[in-house]
Transketolase
Amino acid sequence: MTGAVTDARTDAAETVSDTMRERFASVTSRLLDEDPRLAVVLAEIGRDGFADAARRHPDRVVNVGIREQLLIGVGGGLALTGLRPVLHTFASFLVERPFEQVKLDFGHQGVGGVLVSAGGSYDWPSGGFTHMAPGDVGLLDTLDGWTVHVPGHPDEAETLLRRAAAAGDDKVYVRLSVQVNEAPRPVDGVRFLTLREGRGGVVVAVGPMLDNVLAATGGMDVTVLYATTVRPFDTATLRAAIGTGGAAKVAIVEPYLAGTSTRFANEALEDLPHRVVGLGVGRQELRRYGGIDEHLAGHGLDPHSLRERIAGFLGR
């Protein structure tokens, strides 16, 4: 199961030397050597990547087996002892299945930890809908105080993972994917990056959606912002990109459920005339396995579809 996800790479992923999950395992293993406060909790998935670390730190690398609710419970318990737990499995098993434990064992108990997911919305189509979680970020939005990172490249994943591991007692979700952008950007775990400037509207590309957005908006007079930290939502950069012109038009392209971040953009611009559209994964389940590119096209997230949808929204 683990190998199938690791090997399900897009063409873009093959341009980098490792996947986000492989970088997660190597970086976190090194952090275990450096930080005695860090602990890793697994639910069978990903155990091979931590085999060496488990031999070096048997008391701080815990595999609970295929028991996802216990995964969260153990992580919350370790946090109560003063450790900084890093928990990992597929997004559907990390956020959706044990959501009550996430709500209670971290939120209600007032402790922090780092949830690191794999699988995303459709990274492993042949795994079926049980291994897809397009609603994970939206579900965490019902809880208070979660930081959410969505890297688009293994180098960005490393930066954000290191930041999350050292983040005191904060609650952090890091959403890894086999979809990657061709090149990393200098992310800081706080701000959106301005990659293009234009006057016709603003397009916010989240994580691995960036390359498709750049291709889709080529030649358009639009500002493109790159977001790898989506919670807290970077209100300041979005407002600066809008400027003081007429009615603002903002399109948010996300690799999870369409519209997940539109509320935050609307709140950021509530005192200004504006329109916001959320482009992302649709609510209709695509029941044929296919491949990642076919799922992107099926949800209108390939460059051609995005260009038509963004241009239509901007009135071009």
